[in-house]
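Note to self: keep these together.
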Amino acid sequence: MYTVFDDFLQTLFPNYCLGCKSAVPKKTILCLHCLSELPATNSHFSNSNPLVKLLHQLTTISYATSLFYFEQQGLVQQLIHQLKYMNREQLGSLFGAQLGQKLVNSPFLSCDLVVPIPLHKRRHRQRGYNQVSQFGQQLAKQLQIDYVPQNLVRHKATKTLVRLNAHQRTAQIKDAFSVVDSSVFAGKHLLLVDDVVTTGTTLSGAANCLLQIKGVRVSVATIAFAKSPLP
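Structure:
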């Protein structure tokens, strides 16, 4: 319950919406207006959505969905930037909870483990955290399955893939991922999670690595999806 004391604290230590910077109650991350402006894909209702079609050109997946569409200079891009570079991990938690609630009753998804796309150790050391950790943990919590963050590793540092052509992207991501203990994943349906899908190269590289393990199936869930992937 919001009290007079909360009003007093808000006056002394104002809390701001991470989207529009307007004052909001304590512990609120995004105001109602910004939440309503986020371009939801509603792709969890279909197993033939644009993200599925994109990834099917690159790898074999069972299902894929994104919470929002990503547009240059849009609100989602602004929030993803804060999540990745400004330590706003609470955004990952919020988005993971939102997508998890949608997927709980999905007729297309029944996974055993949530697995995040890992950062290369140098990138992780520079940033201090993996921006998809809280997103993945909240998804796992909503789906009531385990979150396994350290079994898929990225041992090859890659350049920014969006600036490369298709051939260069494929070469960059080749052999970038490996699995520490394949028995952890054997026979499991894995939900591979990331922040933004643009070309699908990173996700397909990780999925192809995981699919080498006997009995593994891979589905994908991300915060955002760029509607017009690069050729």
